[in-house]
Design a protein that fits this description.
Layout (H helix, E strand, L loop, with lengths): L1 H32 L5 H8 L3 H18 L3 H7 L2 H21 L3 H29 L5 H30 L2 H21 L13 H24 L4 H21 L15 H31 L4 H29 L2 H17 L9 H16 L2 H10 L6 H33 L5 H30 L13
Helix pairs in contact: 1-6, 1-7, 1-8, 2-3, 3-6, 3-9, 4-6, 4-16, 5-6, 5-8, 6-7, 6-16, 7-12, 7-15, 9-10, 9-16, 11-15, 11-16, 11-17, 12-14, 13-14, 13-17, 15-16, 16-17
C-alpha cells in the first residue's frame, strides 16, 4: 500500500511540474503569434513603416534562434527551478515593457527580452519531460507539448485581433503579464528540480561564434525572399553566418565540455530524426506563409476568414497530439509517422491545383487533413530521436533539434518564397491572378517534394526494435 501511495505521489508531482512548465511555454508560444494582427495599429501609433514594424517579428525569431543553442549549457548548469523562474521573470518583464512601450525602440527591446526567455523555455520543457518519464511513457508526456504548440498559434491571431479592436495593441501584452506572474508565483511555491547540475565552464568564444553564426544564417535566409539571393545584405549575412558556424563547429570538437555536444549526431537514430524534422519544417512553410496569401490575395478572403480556414486544422492537431503520443508509446514511431507523412505529402500535393474557384470548405478540408497528418509526424519523430540519447545528452539533443528546425524553417521560407516569386514573374503574361497562382503552385510542388523525401527517409530509416528496456531505435 505504501508503495502505491508513493507511486501516486510521484505521479502527481510529475504532473504538477509538467503543468506549471507547460503553462509558461503556452504563454511564450502564444506571444509569438499575437503580434501580427496588431502590427497596423502599432505602425500607426508609433509612426513607423512596415519595414520597421516587421523587425518586431524578425528580431524575436532571430534572438529566439540564437538562444536555443545555448540552452543546453543553461540546463546543465542551473536547476530546473532557477532556470524556469528566471526565464519567466524575463518574459514577464519584457511583456510588461511592451505593454507600456511608447516608442519603437522600447517595444523592440521588449520583444528581445521575450525572445530570450522563449528560446530557453521550449528546449527546457522537452528535456524535463524526457528526464521525468521512462522511455516507454515519453510519447504521451511529449504529446502534452503538442497541445500547446497547436492551440497557442491557433487562438493567438484571433484573440489578438479582437483585443486590438476593443482595447488597443498595448492590452495584448498587459493581459499576458498577470498570467505570467501567476505562473511565477505557482512555480516558486510548487516547482521541484529535475535532473542534476554540473559546474561546467561557459566557453565565451563558443557563445560568440554560435550567436553570430546562427544569427547570420537566420537573418540571411529571412531577407533572401525579400531582397533576393544576390543582394549584398543577403550574401554578407549568409557568408558571415556560415563562416562563424563553421568556426563554432570546429571549436566544439576541441573542447572537453562543448557548449553543444555535436558528437551525438553520430548516433544514427538521432541524426535521421533531426534530418526528417528539418525537411518537414521546411515543407510546412508552404502552409503557414503561402496559404494566407492565397486566401487573401486570390480568393479575397478577409484576415478573419483566413484564420477560420486554418483554425480547425490547428485545433485538430492539438487534440491529436496526446493521442499520437499514446500510439507512439504502444507501437513506436514507424507506422504513425509513415501514415502521417503520407497524408501530409498527398494533401500538400492537392494545393498544386489551386485556382480562383476554390471554396472556403475546400481549402479548409484539405488544410485540416494536412495538419492531421502533421500531428502524427513531429512528436513521434522527435521523441524517437531523443530516446536514442543517454539522459545526460538529452539537453544537448533538444537544443540541436530545436535549432535545426528553426534554421530549416528559415531556409524553407527563403526557398519557397523565391520559387513563388520567380515563377510568378516568368508567367506574368498570363495575368496577375494566374501568374500569382502559378508561383504558388510551384511552391506547393516543392513542398510536396520535400514531404515525399521525408516520407521515403522515414520508411527506410525509422525502425522499431523491441528490447528489454523497450527503447525505440533502429
Amino acid at each position: 500500500m505504501n508503495t502505491d501511495k508513493k507511486a501516486k505521489h510521484e505521479s502527481e508531482k510529475k504532473t504538477l511540474i509538467i503543468a506549471v512548465m507547460i503553462s509558461g511555454v503556452f504563454l511564450a508560444v502564444l506571444n509569438q503569434t499575437v503580434l501580427s494582427p496588431a502590427l497596423p495599429s502599432i505602425m500607426e501609433d508609433l509612426h513607423i513603416t512596415a519595414a520597421e514594424g516587421q523587425w518586431l517579428t524578425t528580431a524575436f525569431l532571430l534572438v529566439n534562434g540564437i538562444m536555443i543553442p545555448i540552452t543546453a549549457y543553461f540546463i546543465d548548469r542551473f536547476t530546473t527551478r532557477q532556470l524556469f523562474l528566471s526565464s519567466m521573470l524575463m518574459f514577464a518583464a519584457g511583456t510588461a515593457v511592451a505593454g507600456f512601450a511608447g516608442s519603437f525602440a522600447v517595444l523592440l527591446l521588449a520583444r528581445i527580452l521575450q525572445a530570450m526567455a522563449a528560446g530557453v523555455l521550449m528546449p527546457m520543457i522537452q528535456t524535463v519531460i524526457l528526464l521525468l518519464f521512462p522511455r516507454e511513457k515519453r510519447g504521451a508526456a511529449m504529446g502534452a507539448i503538442g497541445i500547446v504548440i497547436a492551440f497557442a498559434p491557433a487562438i493567438g491571431p484571433t484573440l489578438s485581433g479582437w483585443i486590438v479592436d476593443v482595447w488597443g495593441w498595448n492590452s495584448i501584452f498587459l493581459l499576458i503579464v498577470p498570467l505570467a506572474l501567476i505562473i511565477i508565483v505557482i512555480s516558486f511555491l510548487l516547482l521541484k528540480n529535475v535532473g542534476e547540475t554540473s559546474h561546467t565552464k561557459l566557453d565565451i568564444l563558443s557563445v560568440i561564434f554560435s550567436s553570430i553564426g546562427f544569427g547570420g544564417l537566420l537573418y540571411g535566409f529571412s531577407v533572401a525572399g525579400s531582397y533576393g539571393w544576390l543582394h549584398p545584405i543577403t550574401l554578407a549575412s549568409l557568408i558571415i553566418g556560415a563562416s562563424f558556424l563553421a568556426a563554432f563547429i570546429k571549436r566544439q570538437h576541441t573542447l572537453s565540455a562543448p557548449l553543444l555536444e555535436l558528437s551525438i549526431l553520430k548516433i544514427k537514430d538521432f541524426r535521421y530524426s533531426t534530418i526528417v524534422s528539418m525537411i518537414v519544417n521546411a515543407a510546412l512553410i508552404a502552409g503557414t506563409i503561402i496559404t494566407p496569401i492565397y486566401l487573401q490575395n486570390v480568393l479575397q478572403f478577409t484576415a478573419m476568414e483566413s484564420g477560420l480556414v486554418m483554425l480547425p486544422g490547428s485545433l485538430l492537431m492539438g487534440i491529436m497530439s496526446p493521442v499520437t503520443g499514446r500510439l507512439f508509446d504502444k507501437f513506436g514511431p514507424r507506422g504513425i509517422s509513415t501514415f502521417g507523412l503520407a497524408l501530409l505529402t498527398v494533401f500538400t500535393g492537392f494545393f498544386m491545383f489551386i485556382d480562383e474557384t476554390w471554396t472556403f470548405m475546400t481549402v479548409c478540408l484539405i488544410y485540416t487533413v494536412r495538419l492531421f497528418g502533421l500531428a502524427m509526424v513531429n512528436m513521434p519523430i522527435n521523441t524517437w530521436g531523443l530516446n536514442s540519447l543517454e539522459n545526460k545528452m538529452i539537453a544537448h539533443g533538444s537544443a540541436i533539434n530545436n535549432t535545426a528546425r528553426q534554421v530549416a524553417g528559415s531556409i524553407g521560407t527563403a526557398i519557397l518564397i523565391t520559387i513563388m516569386t520567380i515563377v510568378s514573374a516568368a508567367t506574368a503574361g498570363a495575368g496577375p491572378v494566374e501568374s500569382t497562382l502559378n508561383g504558388m503552385r510551384a511552391a506547393y510542388g516543392t513542398a510536396t517534394g520535400l514531404s515525399a523525401v521525408a516520407l521515403v527517409m522515414t520508411i527506410l530509416f525509422v525502425k522499431r526494435v523491441k528490447r528489454d528496456d523497450d527503447i525505440f531505435c533502429d
